[in-house]
Amino acid sequence: MFDFPTLQTSRLTLREIVESDAQNILQIHGDAEHMRWFGSDPISDLDGAKKLVATFASWRKEPVLGARWAIELSDQPGLIGTCGLFRWNRNWKSCIMGYEISPAHQGRGYMKEALNAIITWGFREVQLNRIEAQVHPDNAPSLAILAALGFVKEGRQREAGYWAGRHHDLLQYALLNGQWRTENAV
């Protein structure tokens, strides 16, 4: 385990997800229409949300290793979404990125801002070389965020995901540390 890193942006605080966030997790993950691209079935009750909080916390332990942040507005406490880096492969210096935000907070640039913070953290603090993302081909908002962050489409994974009672193709995207440093040089 590691001490959980709290990250700040101009408008957001990214902090550890705790059990008291379960109700907000349920509001986001319980909305079947909103979560149709997430990659898992919707959560149906508060116990399911608490289990998801515990799952996110377990990522900090071997062998899974990863981090999932609660996203909240800096001037207004309360989880509005989550984002994370998980399935870290230490030998390959790579991981997968995942994220979701409440419908009420979409379209304001919060997710791009949050992902920028965790990508920077991953490349600088964890010395990752590669961050991957798998996205449903019909998830236009997520595809737009990845493009804006500089991710490159590498291909299509046929029927790689299974939720809502059926298999789904996923598009494979990746961002490399050298590319990120060049585009985000300070």
TrEMBL record:
Q: Which Pfam families match?
A: Acetyltransf_3
**Can you give the residue ranges of the N-acetyltransferase domain?**
12-176
Q: Which InterPro entries has this protein been placed in?
A: Acyl_CoA_acyltransferase, GNAT_dom, N-acetyltransferase
SUPFAM superfamilies per record: Acyl-CoA N-acyltransferases (Nat) (SSF55729)
The residue stretches assigned to a coiled coil in this entry are none
Classify the source by domain of life.
Bacteria
Record PROSITE patterns? GNAT
Its protein name is GNAT family protein
Species of provenance:
Curvibacter cyanobacteriorum
Which taxonomic lineage does the organism of this UniProt entry have? Bacteria, Pseudomonadati, Pseudomonadota, Betaproteobacteria, Burkholderiales
